[in-house]
Amino acid sequence: MGILEVKDVSKRFGGLKALSDVNLSVAQNTCHAIIGPNGAGKSTLLNCLVGKLIPDTGSVMFDGQSVLGRSPHEINQMGISRVFQTPEIFGDLSVFENMMIPLFARRDGAYRMHAYESVASEKELVSRALQMLEDVNMADKRHMHAASMSRGDKRRLEMAMCLIQEPKLLLLDEPTAGMARADTNNTIDLLRQIKDSRDITIAIIEHDMHVVFSLADRITVLAQGTPLVEDVPERIKGHPKVKEAYLGETAHA
Amino acid sequence: MFGLEKKDLNLLIIVALLTMLAPFILNPFPTDSALAQFNAGYPDLMQRFVIYGIFAIGFNILFGLTGYLSFGHAAFLGVGSYSAVWMFKLLSMNVLPALVLSVIIAGAFSWLIGFISLRRTGIYFSILTLAFAQMSFALAYSVLTPITNGETGLQITLDDPRILGMSATADGSIPVTNIFGLEMRAATDLVIGPWSFTFSVGYYLCALVMLVAFYLSIRIFRSPFGMMLRAIKSNQTRMNYTGLNPKPYTLAAFVISGMYAGLAGGLLACMDPLAGAERMQWTASGEVVLMTILGGAGTLIGPVLGAGMIKYFENIFSKINEATLHSWFDVLPDPMENGLVWVLEHFVGAGWHLTLGVIFMLVVTFLPGGLVEGGQRIGRLFNRTKAAKDDESAATKPAE
User: Fold this and answer.
1) Chain A CB contacts of B220 below 8 Å
2) Count of domains in chain A?
3) Residue B304: which pLDDT band, with cuts at 50, 70 and 90?
4) Which residues 6+ apart lie within 8 Å of A80 measured at CB?
5) Architecture field, domain B6-301
6) Domain of residue A187, residue span
7) Contacts of B231 in chain A (CB under 8 A)
8) CDD domains from the entry (chain B) (predicted)?
C-alpha cells in the first residue's frame, strides 16, 4: 500500500473528459513520475491531489486519510507540499521571511494570532531558517526581496520553502518548464540531493524526458486522461504504447 | 527597550517627542503676526491630528499590510462615537469606560461586517465595505433614530441618568467629560514674549493614547502575525499551499483596524461629546484612505503624517479667504494682484480640496511610497553628499 492511493478518479469539464478511472499508487520514499503528452490530464490529476479540484468520482487517500473535500491548506498540513510550474513565492517579502512563514505554518497550524512578540524573538525557528538557506546556498541573499531574484533562485527558494516543512510527499509540477539546460541540470542535482538525503516521497509531473529518466524510480504514462502504462524507467523507454502516445512529439528524441 | 529593535525604538521616541512638544512645534509664529493663521497649535486641531492619526494607523494595519482596501471604515469611527456618547449619557462623564465601550462595540461591529465582506477580495471587497458603511450611515440617519437621534445627532442632556455620575452639575449645567475629575477642556496657556502656547488635558490624553496605539502597531508590524498579513498581500496561493488559512488572518486584521477606528471615534466624542451620522459618511471613509496613501501605505509612520497633513490643510487652508490673499499681494500692481488672487482663491477657503487634490496627485505620481518615500529620498540625498565629501577628504589627504 502506497503513501498516496488514487482510485478510479474521474473528472469532467463540461463535455471534456479530463480524467477517466485513474488509478495510481505512489510507494513511500520513492520518486514517482507522471508523464504524458499535452492535454493528457497531468495537471488535472495534480490539482485533484492538492484540493484545488474535487474529482467527480473516485477516492484519493494520503497516508490512510481521504484528501477529498479538504482545502489546500488542510492538505498541506497533512504533509503534502507542492512546487508550482512558475515559482509561487512571497515576492514582496525577504528571502529570510519566505523561509520563516512555512516554519510558523508547520509549528502553529493554519492560523494562530501571534501579534505581540517579534519574528526575531523566535530563536529556534530563525536558526532553522538560516540553516536551510545555508543548505541551498542562499544565505547571502537572505535580505533580498524574493521577487528580485533570478528564476532559478526563485525555484530553489520555493523548493526550500517546501522542504523546510518536512513534508511526507513533495509534489512537483513541471519544475524545469521553460528553463535553460544548465538550470535544468542544476534542478535535477538539487532534487537528487533531496531524494538521497532524506525520507521523502516525490511525485513529479514532467515533460522533459531527461529529467524524468534521471530521477524517477517509477513512471506512469498518462494519455487522454487514463494511465497507459506504469513501470520502471528502463522498460518505459522502449515501450511501444508510450512511443505511440508521444508520436510526432518526442518519438524521435 | 519595550521589546523593539533600535530603529523602531528611535522612531517611537521621535514620535513621542513630536507629540509631547506639539504645542510648541505647531505654534512657530507669534500670536499677533500675520503668519499666526498658519499656527496649528491650538487644542482642537492638535486633537484632530492625533485622533485621525490613530484612525489611519489602524487602517494601515488592514490596508498597508494585507492590501485589502476598505471603503467603510468611517462606520466604525461613527459606531465608536455613538458608543462613547451613550456611555456619557448612561454611566458617567469619565472617558475611560466610554473608550473601552467604543473599542468593544466597534470591534464587534467590524467582525460582523468583515465576516461578510471578506468572502470577496479586490474591488468586490471594497464595494461591499462601502455598501455596509453607507447602510450604517442611512440607519444612523433615520431608521435607528431612537439610538442615534437621527439627523440632530446624539448629544448629552440634563435628563440623562449617568448612574455613576450626576445628571447635572450643582449650578444646573451639563457636566463635562473628564478622566477621574480632570476635565478634558482644562488648559493652561504659556506666554513667552509674543508667543502663546496652549497645553490642554484633552490633547495630552489623545496623544498618550496615540502613542500606545502606535507602539502596538509597531509590535504588530514586527510580529509573525504582521508577517502573515504581508504574505497575504504578496501571494495568497502560496499562503494556501503552505498550510495557512488566509481568512482568519484577514478577519483579525479587519477587526483590529475596526477597533482602532472605534477608539478614534470614541476619542472624538470624549473631546466633544456629540455624535452625528455624517461621521459615518463615505467621504470620511475616503479620507482615511487618502491619509494612508498620502503618508505611505504599509509604513509605520506614514499614516500619521498623512493624517496630520490632511487635517492641517482642512483647517488652515480653508480659513484663508479672498481678503487674506489681497492683503498678502498688496505690494503688487493692482491688475497683477487681482489676477493672482483670482487664480489662488480657488485653491483656498472652500476650495482647499483642490489644493489637496493637486498634492495628492503629485505625491502618487512622483512618490508612490507617499511622504515617507519623500523623506527617504531626501535622507539618501544627504547621505550621498556626505559620503561624497568623505571620499573627497579621503582622496585629498594623501596629497597633503
Assistant:
1) 115
2) 1
3) very high
4) A49, A50, A62, A67, A167, A168, A169, A170, A171
5) Orthogonal Bundle (1.10)
6) 4-79+167-245
7) 90, 93, 97, 101
8) TM_PBP1_LivM_like (cd06581)
